[in-house]
Predict the 3D structure of the following.
Amino acid sequence: MAVEGEPRRYFMRHEQMDFETQLILGGCYYGCADAGEVLSTVERIGEGDFEAWYREWCATAERLERTAEECAAAGNRVSARRSYLRASSYYAASLSMIDGTEDPSRRVPTWKRHIACFEEFCARLDPPAEKVEIPYEEVPMPGYLFKPDAAGGPFPVVIFNNGSDGPTVSMWSSGVAGALERGYAALVFDGPGQNAMLWLHEVPFRHDWEAVITPVVDFLLSRDDIDPARIALSGISQGGYWILRALAFEHRVAAGIADPGVMDVSTAIVGKYPPEMLKLVDEGRKEEFDGMMAEGLKYMDAATRQTVQWRMKPYGTESFYDWIEMARRYHLRDVIDRVRCPVFIADPEDEQFWPGQSREVYEALTCPKTLVRFTREEGANWHCEPKARALYDQRMFDWLATVMPPKASG
């Protein structure tokens, strides 16, 4: 039952599990999931049981992976492609609660299974996605370039910037599929603190995301199949901060998209702490703060411990004090007025991580800007509109067509 005035939980009282289930179901629109598979898996998971969450999603993924292999061996390319995509999505789903399980060390092997299935899916697209490496400091950033057809071009392209913990496969239903249908190419990549850069190379987040996006733009401009005048940059979840930060410095991008707008990443973290604890951080009392946090976590529920561990990892620190100090650098207040290109900002009702910040971003921007509300009545509430990717894509891509059309004029 929903409490009046609060967003409904459909499947579990455990907020994160219910939200993750909605995200997975939202992927049905572009083939990342099938409703029956999702619902039957959730039925096998006890309330707040992290081990069961990991086990049952992996079991569903393994079944789909076997199906994909059988379809591929029989020459059934479409069935294999679709089954590999769902298998990848379900392996990724298993990882969202792994810090609360009996054995978190299963993360990287399971992540590798997710990416292997995703690459099998990519190889069976028409045309196949191109696996790329984007030069970046000491470790190149891996990515995938999708084109709407093999011939033609140069294509307009949308760079889809993932969030703080989104799996690679999620970008298919969070922009890539919709872009291809409309004649745009799409690039997804792992930046610092994301997926391969984190799990394989231990490269953590950075706040100055222009240092990430400028090499991505350089890479695209080196290609003959990309239109240099029609490059858009889209960021989902924490990517709503990163892309706006990058756009303040990288002015070769023609359009920006933030889902949602994020002015200050740290509020999702510091908002959980009582004022007396934050006072310790403000006074530089690192040892005392870390000691109190370590002791306090022993008495917190498993869900809280799991969330803290999951959120800290990409920052590359085990210090709670350093985590807060780092996160406080992730804000736009001193640079947002430098953004020049047109920007689309999604503003979902019931935003649970950065409430009110989409409008704050909109009001602070001095460039051409559009704020679009997504409501509970439309089934489009909660962070990143998990159940409404069709509606989101319709509104966002229709806006994009007005500022960066899929076909060049003339």
Remarks:
- Residues 98 and 104 are 5 Å apart (CA to CA).
- The beta strands are 130-134, 141-146, 155-161, 185-189, 226-236, 255-259, 343-348, 369-374.
